[in-house]
Amino acid sequence: MVTWQQLHDLIEDAQLALTPAAEGPLIHVDSQQQLLTLVYQEQGASLQYPVSTSRHGIGQREGSLQTPAGIHRIAAKIGAGEPLGRVFQGRQPQEQICLPQDYDGETDWITTRILWLDGLQPGLNRDGEVDTKRRYIYIHGTADEAHIGQPASIGCVRMNNQDVIELFERVAVDDLVIIQ
User: Fold this and answer.
1) What is the CATH number of the domain that holds 13?
2) What is the pLDDT of residue 41?
3) Among 26, 164, 165, 172, which is most exposed with the fewest C-beta within 10 angstroms?
């Protein structure tokens, strides 16, 4: 399992000027294992959640439908207090609720909570055709929970709805996310 110090070393190696949030919990997304790990420095503990990254692999380019690698920050937390399965379009809650038992197998619903990511590495995941935030890359809930644990998204990091609520409550805007 990845440690807080290993992730912090990656961040230092990238030579990014970061806010004190770099001392908070770190989120690591392992695209090979399809796992998201929330790592705490002070406790030496971590929580793991199965996820689904892109079925097209890891990549940076706009229009690639790939999950972007590198160091990101949580730019916004969206959906606090919304019920399990609330559907979002354009980051706005809709009337519709879509739970896994209601999933039609086709629509790529964004549900329950959204953590909007902002890339921090110019040329890798920030600015131009590789800008994570302008690509609208999120960590979010999904009605397609049957595919959690395998690459199935079109760029975002999908989570089980209950897991994304738990993660949402444990992280803050500006907390760092490392996707590998």
Assistant:
1) 2.40.440.10
2) 81
3) 172
